[in-house]
Amino acid sequence: MTNIPLAERLRPKSLDDYIGQTHLVGPDGIIRRMIETGRVNSFILWGPPGVGKTTLARIIASQTDVPFYTLSAVTSGVKEVREILARCEADARSMFVKGRPILFIDEIHRFNKSQQDSLLGAVEKGTVTLIGATTENPSFEVIRPLLSRAQVYTLMPLELVDLENLLERALSNDEVLKSRKFDIRSKDALFRFAGGDARKLLNIIDLIEQSTGEDETVVIDDNVVTSRLQQNPAAYDRNGEMHYDIISAFIKSIRGSDPHAAVYWLARMVAGGEDPTFIARRLVIVAAEDIGLANPNALLLANATFDALNKIGWPEGRIILSECAIYLANSPKSNTAYAAIGAALETVERTGNLPVPLHLRNAPTKLMADLGYHKGYKYAHDYEGNFVEQQYLPDGLENYKFWNPGNNPSEIKMRQRLDSLDKNRLNE
What we know:
Layout: H1 6-9, H2 22-25, H3 30-37, E1 43-46, H4 53-63, E2 68-72, H5 78-93, E3 102-106, H6 113-125, E4 129-134, H7 138-141, H8 144-147, E5 151-154, H9 160-173, H10 175-178, E6 182-184, H11 188-194, H12 198-210, E7 218-220, H13 222-229, H14 241-255, H15 259-271, H16 276-291, H17 297-312, H18 317-330, H19 336-351, H20 366-370, H21 409-427
Parallel strand pairs: 1-4, 1-5, 2-3, 3-4, 6-7
Helix pairs in contact: 5-6, 11-12, 11-13, 14-15, 14-16, 15-18, 16-17, 16-18, 17-18
């Protein structure tokens, strides 16, 4: 029995033993209602490792009176999927089967497009109920037709109270641990290393118990946990959901003018092995989108950061990224350029291909000139102040204003110049 990992020994067999995810399995939770009514619809469980996705599927398998099949996307190809679907179709036609068979696919995000396509027909016809589990954002990893046929339920990392309950249950219910004497002096490091992952928590306890002599008391405190693990792993997946969450936090910290948070999230990416050029590209985008005309030098610095990073390389490049992130976070903010192109694109989408006014058209041939192309165009540099009033927008949009200057020193100057030009227009 001791050869079986603690996480497997303690795997819940029913919802009453399940810890966490009360929004799904609590008294009013949708998955609890599905299990209790026996009417399970297709859904995808999305959440980080160790929060109970596979366990929920096993509970459903044990408590629903329908055939239940399991596939692992890591080891199964299209051939295995089709074989299982054929068995499900036979079950669906059988008079001895009360409901639709359930197919559970672990790590469904690892299925490629053709493998996911092979599931569509059976799910659409109701031949099978699909339950998928994934640690990756289904919006990016699951094809849209399949996603539209399955509800997505998000599982969250276990909260501190959940980890406390899990620890207490392990010490009081597990036959191996009950036979040992424990001395729990502090739990901060234990819960910090677990990081909301039930499996990781139990694996740490398992490791400490197994590395303690049989006649010794099993001590759990911050020093013991840290020394036994010999690491402080950073939770970061360059190709996963954490990648998108942390870059989002990084960008929003810069937008929110918090240089401390910006450097922290930058450090998380650096420690997690993120591609430095990816970070540099995002800095260039932030400089244009969120700082923009309030400080045009920000875009120059961000672009210089990108170039310098390619010249300097790693690890010194992290200093360049830090300097740029701090500068951008401390810069005045404006999204008027971003808003302007958005408003213009919306107008183009709504109004279609309005003709270019004749006086703005190019006239490279005599025929075009005879048709009036370029006729009446006023060359701005021939006029005082390099400005002359004339129509530049298509007919019907003459008075549209797509760019609204922001309330910052740089754009206030631009606004003042526009106001001055507007007065000249009125006087002409």
